Amino acid sequence: MVVNLRAGVSDPDGKWALEFFAQNLFNKNYTQVAFDAPFQAPGGNTLGNPFVTTSNQTFNAFLGEPRTFGVTLKGRF
User: How far apart are alpha carbons 36 and 59 in whole angstroms?
Assistant: First the structure.
């Protein structure tokens, strides 16, 4: 589970606000997107030869964002 957190303070009129945030608070490693990687067969080039097959399948992935902290200051004039 990925936990995000945002907490802040502001004046009653809403003229300013200060917010602190954390994304992926516990620094969980996760895969955001995984996909098949065609033409990356570890058995070599099998293109053009329908009789050559490989039992190995290659996948690639985009990992999720690491832990991030920040501060937001908002003002209204």
Answer: 5
Cα–Cα distance, 64 to 23 (Å, whole number)? 11
Residue 71 to residue 2: CA distance in whole angstroms? 20
Give the whole-angstrom CA distance, residue 63 versus residue 30. 6
Q: Do the beta carbons of residue 20 and residue 8 sit within 8 Å?
A: yes
Residue pLDDT, tens place only, 14-70:
899 999 999 999 999 999 988 887 766 555 555 555 555 555 667 788 999 999 999
| CB neighbourhood size of 14 (10 A) | 9
Nearest to 61 by CA among 14, 39, 29: 29
Which H helix or E strand runs over 70? Answer: strand 68-75
pTM score: 0.62
